[in-house]
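FORM 7B: Structural annotation worksheet

SECTION A. Query
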Amino acid sequence: MMTAYNELYLDDAMENLGDMIDYAVYDLKFDVDEFFYFFIASGLAYQFEKGNPKYIAGMSGYELADKVIETVNVIPKNADKNNISDEVRVDRSKEYWAGWVLAYYQWKTNKKFEDIIKDGLTLSTIISMYILHEADVSKFVESADEIIARNKAVRKTKLKEIREARGFTQKQLSDVSGIKLRTIQLYEQRENDINKAGVNIVSSLAQALGCDIEDLLE
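SECTION B. Predicted structure
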């Protein structure tokens, strides 16, 4: 699997994401999952996951956090910067580790941060895995993959979600799209991977459902 960006930037990216989360939680007083949502909504997560040097190495984690709140126009609970302690935290926090190891996981898997969160690997979930902080990072990757796999197993596919939202039965979608009923069932049961389907199949399903092809991909 191709990594998200050049490994030369990885150490900086991990440290900066860790510092950003630590600063947002302890200094700016944000809830960890709430702030990461703002990070995604700001568009900086997209720049980060694509390896834009300006964001993964050219800015500190503290500057990243400030840029996030400026971009999404939210006021931190500790809005008075004069009340922020300038004391350096010697011991790395659980929140720092969560950001640090999430940066590695995103780099390793080349997944979008948004998709990682949707698959259940939230910052608070990662913090609950802090027992792994002294283990090799590959152990975290294995555990994270297991969590995501379990969540995907019980979560509806995008195809099923959109089909049900449109009020189609599988049979009706088959009739309208011209795609075999069994094929639709296999995609919805994740027996077959819709991401590997032929363009004509996904295009026909998307047209029948009135959505974009990308909306159906997992």
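SECTION C. Observations
The chain has two domains: 7-154, 158-216. The first helix runs from residue 10 to 26.

SECTION D. Sign-off
Analyst initials: ____
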